[in-house]
Design brief:
heterodimer, A: mainly alpha, globular, disordered C terminus, B: alpha+beta, Phosphorylase Kinase, domain 1, 7 strands
Chain lengths: ~200, ~260
């Protein structure tokens, strides 16, 4: 859905907005296409950080950079992919700077006790339980697999776009995707029963 | 097991396998039920991931994030540079823009119906509850309805026949969408339970998708993109019933597109 807002380019959206403040170079309105991208950025930031507050900090930093660099975005390309790339770079840089984080190389399991992975209570109870299990198992994947899985399965980016976002070869995208799916499949289990699932061991 | 690679399996399930390889893969699937089952499994997993993660999209956006995508107030700098004569006009412009901005922000916080399933659910709730005028053109004029909506949407649409599921066409109308006008068809069963099927042009570049499910304010929505059209089937049925009707819609629409 967000993609529809992207076709006309950030500068076209600028022109629309600029009508409201014809004499100023920058419109005072929030950029509509960037606003439209926020929910997906927040979601991906949670996948990366596993923590709702840190996720919104990351989104804010990403949006600030996206805003600064908005004229560098190539019209016609996927704005989400461009923003995910910025977010990935901000995230990686922050981790490199922060030695404490750097020592803790993998974020596996970070989110398990965090608020980031709680589902908003919207779905009916039955579905809620199943979806919560899926979310929980996703948090247990190594971050490298988690991000590829979410970008491919949830954001439906093309593999080449994912490779560009993460600065890795397409072959690496494929192998991470394959491993993530296999792990998740084993963890969630094919036939769902109503009996409370025993704790599954994930290696 | 098969000459098909693991990469092809994922690419096929994700709808990313190039045309030439796709045919070969489909032939391999026809030969090898295990391969077909693997594809189905990946697609099931994708659907449940989307179900799980899509719920997050509906959360209200914090103000600080909205503030990050507009310039800081530049009125002060700006006014220093421009002749005083323009200052009052500028203030007025900024004031108006600020008011408009506040409205946008308020809408964002209130949960703007930005996603297709959400919009579909809200539209469903609005018209399905209308006893007297749920549709603009009644089923008695089905042909006129289809012609009108086809003209307005810019591609052929027509209401699928859901009688085999016990749902008869009530009629249809044109509704506003976020980017594109949307066609709405309403159906009703013997107990007066109503379903709506909404169809519109998907965002440019969007490929076909599997069925996805969302619950928005108590309304269940199955939505998918097929052959350059985005569909949303909404109703207060349980998920399995809605899915069964979704499959019927899909099969009713599929043959005549070829």
């Amino acid at each position: 859905m967000a993609a529809a807002a992207l076709a006309h380019g950030l500068d076209a959206a600028f022109a629309r907005n600029a009508g409201a403040s014809a004499m100023s170079a920058d419109p005072p309105l929030p950029h509509p296409d960037l606003v439209a991208a926020i929910p997906r950025l927040r979601r991906y930031a949670r996948v990366l950080t596993g923590d709702a507050t840190r996720a919104d900090d990351l989104v804010q930093e990403t949006l600030a950079r996206g805003w600064e660099k908005r004229r560098l975005w190539a019209a016609g390309t996927d704005l989400r992919a461009w923003l995910f790339t910025i977010m990935h770079n901000v995230f990686v840089n922050q981790r490199a700077v922060n030695m404490r984080d750097a020592q803790n190389v993998s974020l596996d399991g970070d989110g398990e006790s965090g608020t980031a992975w709680q589902l908003p209570v919207r779905a009916p109870q039955q579905a809620h339980v199943e979806l919560a299990e899926v979310l929980r198992e996703v948090t247990r994947l190594p971050r490298e697999q988690r991000e590829v899985l979410v970008l491919a399965a949830v954001e439906e980016l093309r593999y080449e776009e994912i490779a560009a976002v993460l600065s890795i070869p397409v072959g690496t995208v494929m192998s991470r995707l394959s491993r993530a799916r296999e792990k998740l499949r084993r963890a969630v289990g094919e036939p769902r029963t109503d009996a409370p699932a025993p704790l599954k061991i994930v290696r | 097991m098969t000459p098909e690679t693991d990469d092809d399996l994922h690419a096929y399930a994700d709808g990313q396998l190039p045309e030439a390889r796709r045919l070969a893969f489909e032939q391999a699937m026809a030969r090898d039920p295990a391969l077909a089952a693997q594809v189905a499994e990946v697609r099931r997993q994708n659907a449940s991931l989307r179900d799980a993660f899509d719920a997050w999209l509906a959360e209200p956006v914090p103000q600080r994030l909205l503030d990050a995508v507009r310039p800081p107030v530049r009125g002060a700098t700006w006014r220093r540079l421009v002749a005083p004569i323009a200052a009052s006009a500028a203030t007025l412009v900024l004031g108006l823009a600020g008011g408009w901005y506040a409205r946008d922000a308020a809408l964002e916080r209130a949960g703007l119906p930005t996603t297709f399933p959400r919009q579909a659910a809200l539209t469903h709730a609005l018209y399905a509850a209308d006893a007297n005028r749920p549709v603009e053109v009644w089923a008695s004029e089905e042909k006129r309805l289809a012609n009108w909506l086809t003209r307005r949407l810019g591609f052929p649409v027509h209401p699928p026949d859901l009688n085999s599921a016990g749902y008869a066409l009530v009629g249809g109308r044109l509704v506003a969408g976020a980017e594109q006008p949307t066609a709405l068809f309403m159906y009703e069963d013997a107990a007066k339970n109503r379903l709506t099927l909404q169809a519109r042009k998907p965002p440019s570049g969007a490929g076909d998708t599997a069925f996805r499910y969302a619950v928005e304010d108590g309304v269940g929505v199955y939505y998918w993109i097929d052959d350059h059209c985005a569909y949303a089937l909404s109703g207060t049925l349980d998920r399995a019933q809605l899915l069964a009707i979704g499959r019927l819609v899909y099969s009713e629409l599929a043959p005549e597109k070829k």
